[in-house]
Amino acid sequence: MKVIEVLALRENSKSMSGKVFERSVELPVSADKAFEWHERPGALERLIPPWESVTVADRGNGVQDGSCVKLIARVGPIKLPWLAEHHDYNAGHRFRDSQRSGPFAAWEHLHEFHGVDADNSLLRDRVEYRLPGGVLGSLLGGRFVRRKIDRMFEYRHSTTHADLVAHSKYQGAESMHIAITGSTGLVGSTLVPLLTTGGHSVTRLVRREANEGEVTWNPQAESFDASPLDGIDAVVHLAGENIANSRWNPRVKQRLRDSRVVATRTLCEGLARMSTPPKVLVCASAIGYYGDRDEELLAEESAPGTSFLAKLVNDWEEATRPAAEAGIRVVNLRFGVILSPKDGALSKMLLPFKLGVGGRVGSGKQYWSWISIDDAAGVAHHAIMTEGLVGPVNTVAPNPATNIEFTKMLGRVLRRPTIFPMPAFAARLALGEMADELLLASARVDARKLLESGYEFRQPTLEAALRHLLGRT
Fold first, then answer.
1. Distances in Å between the alpha carbon of 285 and those of 49, 95, 102, 395?
2. Which CATH class is domain 2-168?
3. Which among 96, 247, 272, 314 would be 20 to 30 A from 2, CA to CA?
4. 250 with 256: CB under 8 angstroms?
5. In the Cβ-directed half-sphere of 50, how many Cα atoms lie within 13 Å?
């Protein structure tokens, strides 16, 4: 990614007597294609930094004149609505959004697209803003807000560039119609806008009454009538109860099995009965398949472990057999520890580490094979589009880290000490059996199959991933 104008912040008395921020980035597509990406559903979601507690309440009707977007920002228990209206729309060239109500005294954002040549373009973002409180507000909050805006646009440009690179690899392929279970979960909520900004259409499989663009299904039913999915090209199955939501006991373990094994079998049998089944099923799995293996380098052909989680994942993958036997290309994504500040292991670690009371777990020698949330969604997209990819795929970054390496790097990125270890007995006391399988088990997992299939990681190193996800460049 080539940033042309790194940063420009200055007083501008001619505009709104406030600040002006400018940042530009060169994109690997024409100006028309870059503009199209911003017009598609999901673009706004892709551009919201994951460290910000911001949700899209109303995305309006695209970026054309008069369309309004409503965001909800959360600061602790306080909700701060932000309403912006689009205007100055010129297809392929520019559009603006101006705050109608929100945290700033004034805010106007120009998105401008310039062609560099047939295959490259320049995106220029220019924001004019004023803080509330006049001179006092600028003195008290000016530097803080300036840093937040800079971090936000660095993230936006990096994400836009990476998304366009990912989609340009398949520019000759037709757009697909893709059904997704678990679309509001950690991976699904990132994958859906990644797909829609690439020109694909998505149908969500939901357990409640369906709205437009949705199909109702019951994952615990004895059968699933998949006829409403006629015309679907691909299915991505991500649904399943969070493995770390509750302390494990026989009842919880059964729920975990039902939400994965039973639900997957029900879905796959329904897909197999379709007159025209989808071409591909991408199904979530996990590196828990391997169990606790110390420093052994684990490839997809490695034998499964013998723990509860290993047996669960083995049965989960086996439940996709009806789809494979019906001629559907099945890809089982064995996800490692998915890093996101919104949910999962990293989100639970952030508060103690920010407070300076984080540290290694147990000996710290156990391997944590991880992957950033953007790469987790990126691999799912890659699996849909790559016809030669089939069977289990280790969905991990190419550089697994030991727990102590992970701990030190998180502390370094947050600029906090990491001197308060959690002994193994304390982890077991707090989490029971779950501690041995999720925190203390070692799985050094090899990403070679994924790399050989042509996938290019956005964040191949732990430091790059943490800095990107936490805005700590």
1. 27, 42, 42, 9
2. alpha beta
3. 96
4. no
5. 23
Which helix (H) or strand (E) element contains residue 391? strand 391-395
**Which amino acid, one-letter code, is at 389?**
L
- Which residue carries 């004149």 as its tokens? 65
How many angstroms separate the CA atoms of 102 and 313, rounded? 46
Residue with the two structure tokens 């990125």 = 413
Parts of the chain belonging to CATH 3.30.530.20? 2-168
Token reading at 2: 């080539």
Residue ranges of E strands in 15-143: 18-27, 54-58, 68-75, 78-90, 94-101, 106-117, 120-130
403 C-beta neighbours (distance < 10 Å), count: 22
CA angle 320, 325, 326 (to 5 degrees): 100
Report the pLDDT value the prediction gives residue 8, as an integer from 0 to 100: 43
Question: Tens digits of per-residue pLDDT, 299-322?
Answer: 999 999 999 999 999 999 999 999
Model confidence at 97, in pLDDT bands (50, 70, 90)?
very high
- Reported pTM: 0.94
**Alpha-helical segments (H) within 70-133:** none
The residues with which 71 forms a beta bridge, in sequence order, are 56, 82
Q: Is residue 169 classed as helix, strand or coil in its secondary structure?
A: coil
Q: Provide CATH 3.40.50.720 ranges for the chain.
A: 177-470
* Alpha-carbon gap, residue 243 to 337, rounded angstroms: 12
At 190-225, the pLDDT tens digits run 999 999 999 999 999 999 999 999 999 999 988 999
User: How would CATH label the architecture of 177-470?
Assistant: 3-Layer(aba) Sandwich (3.40)
CB under 8 Å, gap of 24 or more: what pairs does 166-173 form?
A: 166/194, 166/198, 166/378, 166/381, 166/382, 167/37, 167/197, 167/198, 167/199, 168/28, 168/29, 169/385, 169/454, 170/198, 170/385, 173/385
1-22: average pLDDT: 58
CB 302, CB 444: distance < 8 Å:
no
Place of tokens 């999915």: 229
- Judge contact between 407 and 464, C-beta under 8 A: no
Return all residues near 236 (Cβ < 8 A) that are at least 6 apart. 178, 179, 180, 181, 188, 191, 281, 282, 283, 380, 384
Task: Show the beta-strand stretches assigned E in 410-470.
Answer: 444-445
How far is 450 from 447, CA to CA, in rounded Å?
Answer: 6
- Tokens found for residue 388: 């030669």
